[in-house]
Structure formats: structure tokens, C-alpha cells
Amino acid sequence: NVRFGVTSLKLAGTGNTGSGFTFAGTPFPGGQSITSSFDMSHTEIALYYELLDNVVSLDLGINAKLFDGNVSLTSGAASEVITFNETVPMLYLGAAVSLPLTGLTIEGDLSTISYDDYDFTDYLIRVKYTTEFLLGIELGYRSLTLDFADTGTNEYADVKVDGPYAAVSLNF
Known about the structure:
The protein has 172 residues and is mostly beta strands. It has no helices and twelve strands. The strands form two sheets. Strands 1, 2, 5, 6, 7, 8, 9, 10, 11 and 12 form a ten-stranded antiparallel β-sheet that branches. Strand 8 (78-99) and strand 9 (104-115) form a beta hairpin.
């Protein structure tokens, strides 16, 4: 089986720099206002085998998340943008319980990978209603966590984005 998804995930914020730092070779002085934006939008493709397929469904496979994003910092005259295009392979686990005669299912998906100093987890829990016309409506909670440290390049990230979400799906 194949599962395809697109996630638009863009974050922005403002704050103050406590002390000076260097980002992508550009110095940012301390004690100034800073604006940041972070685009982690991605496409994902999962190839999976359906171990169970009745009232309870259980899927196991691999998932590739294709990121095309950027990180931007601006403070006074200092401004820097880093772009990234990465494909992250992950293990995939999906489970669902159908509520008979209602069109409702309670579902959960987990994609994760961990090696060396790199941990990436994406999970969601949702309630889904599917119409007779293959159109689905989902409401749920999603959490995406990225934690890595590369001492060779002095790059690191500790990002967690989570909260409620809604989606529309096509099931065929």
C-alpha cells in the first residue's frame, strides 16, 4: 500500500537576543529584537504492509519525508536565511479501529527514526469520518519533534511543534 501526504508547516516569532551569537556566519549582537521564521513544510510517502484489515487495522512500513524549507533570522542590519532540502527515511506504524455502522474511525500514525545524535518523531491521533464518496474529514492532535546535534559542523536543533489539526483526505 502507498500513503501520500502534504504538510504545510510555517512558524514565525519575535523576541530579544540575550547575548550575541553567530548564525550561518552572520553575527547577531546581543540585547536586540530578533524576528525568526521556520518553514518545515514537507511531502511524505509511506510504503506499508497491512498486517490486519478488519475492525482493527494495523500497518507497518517505511516513510520518507521530503523537506524543502528554510530558517530565517533578522535583527537590525543582520539578516540570514538557511535553506534545506532533505529526505528523511523513517519507520512507519499505523493503527485504526473502525466504529461499525458510523463511518467513524479512531486512528493513529507514528513515523520515527533515531541514530547517533539524531531523533525525529512525527505522530498523530485522529478521529476520521469517511463519506460514501471516498472523501474523509479528520480532526486530531499531531506532534512533530526534531532533535539533532552535529558537532562537526556545530549545527543543532531542538524543535517540537504540536497541537490540534484538521484535514481532508481522499481514500481509495
